[in-house]
Design a protein that fits this description.
Strand order of the largest sheet: 1-2-4-3-5-6-7-8
Radius of gyration: 19 Å
Helix content: 25-40%
Shape: globular
Largest sheet: 8 strands, mixed
Number of domains: 1
CATH class: Alpha Beta
CATH topology: Rossmann fold
CATH superfamily: Alpha/Beta hydrolase fold, catalytic domain
Number of helices: 9
Number of strands: 8
Oligomer: single chain
Order of helices and strands: HHEEEHEHEHEHHEHEH
Strand content: 15-25%
């Protein structure tokens, strides 16, 4: 048997004892309500923050993409980086509210403005709608819109699970394509390979919150017949655009069906010379960073990631400054 943390075991015992259908056994609207209801019981409150504001971000297809701005300090400050966060939920569930507390904690922990992006969800809006919205939102933020409250000097793209997938896509597609640099990518237990069917996908197929059946339902909802499952906007692991990508922090959980995908992605980044920090939470489950009330040890996992990310961003800012100086010379 794999090692399971005591607080994780207590949460899983409670969860697995509950009657009723699982999310993949109901339709998408009902699954979204179930996810919100669970979040209200297992996640910490948002806590205090200097400024939170709802945003309307222009999409590329005549629609608006909702967003939420988190500012840990008073606005109208000097130029500074912004972390762009894409929420998890299998491209089917999740929204600004399900990841509200985590985004606030990230803003506080980094002392940095955070913008959370509420991209369109499948199956109503299948692939590539989610990726399209995240790319459009990231371009908009990079242009320093006034609502951010300060000029944007660089971006960190970040997300959990499906959001980690979208963060990887944005890093690949937008690196060196924006008016400001992408300083780092933070991939939190990301789903990056839609073709993965072995290893951790089998070892943790049931009983650890995210199941193999649930993941299959998410992918079918997003990709339909699966013909695009190896497209780099769906499976960023299968791109040929690794060289020169922004520095990365890849975080995985030891009891996660997606664990091996995250490990493999970190290895491929390293193989292509991308500065990469890899962290794995032993005895932890998928989704843990939004389960911090039910699983208190997840707060320490988040704190460790934020400490590592601060170092990556500081180093990346120095590299960007030197590159600008060299160009000016």
């Amino acid at each position: 048997m794999p090692f399971v943390r005591p607080d994780v075991k207590a949460f899983l015992d409670f969860l697995n004892s509950q009657p009723g259908p699982q999310m993949h056994e109901v339709d998408a609207p009902m699954a979204r309500e179930m996810f919100k209801m669970m979040g209200s019981m297992v996640e910490l409150p948002r806590g205090e923050l200097a400024h939170v504001e709802e945003l309307s971000i222009p999409g590329d297809h005549g629609h608006s993409v909702p967003g939420r701005l988190y500012c840990p300090t008073q606005r109208n400050g000097p130029p500074a980086p912004v972390l762009v966060f894409y929420h998890g939920g299998g491209w089917v569930i999740g929204d600004l509210d399900t990841h509200d507390s985590a985004c606030a904690e990230i803003a506080r922990g980094l002392g940095m403005t955070v913008v959370s992006v509420d991209y369109r969800l499948a199956p109503e809006h299948p692939f590539p709608a989610a990726a399209d919205d995240c790319l459009a939102a990231t371009r908009w933020i990079a242009a320093s819109p006034a609502v951010i409250g300060h000029a944007v000097s660089g971006l960190i793209v970040a997300g959990d699970s499906a959001g980690g997938n979208l963060a990887a896509v944005c890093a690949q597609q937008l690196h060196d394509q924006l008016p400001v640099p992408i300083l780092a990518q933070w991939l939190i237990y990301p789903g990056v390979d839609m073709s993965a069917e072995i290893g951790s996908m089998v070892d943790f197929a049931e009983g650890y919150l995210l199941t193999h059946a649930g993941m299959s339902w998410f992918m079918a909802s997003y990709l339909g017949d699966g013909a695009e499952r190896l497209h780099p906007h769906a499976s960023p692991y299968h791109t040929d655009r690794f060289a020169g990508l922004p520095p990365a922090l890849v975080f995985t959980c030891g009891l996660d069906p997606l664990r091996d995908q995250g490990r493999a992605y970190a290895a491929k980044l390293i193989e292509h010379g991308v500065p990469t920090v890899f962290r794995e939470a032993k005895g932890q489950i998928h989704g843990s960073l939004t389960l911090r009330q039910a699983i208190p040890s997840a707060q320490g996992d988040l704190a460790g990631c934020l400490a590592a990310l601060r170092e990556i961003v500081t180093e990346s800012q120095g590299d960007a400054t030197m590159a600008q100086a060299a160009q000016a010379a």
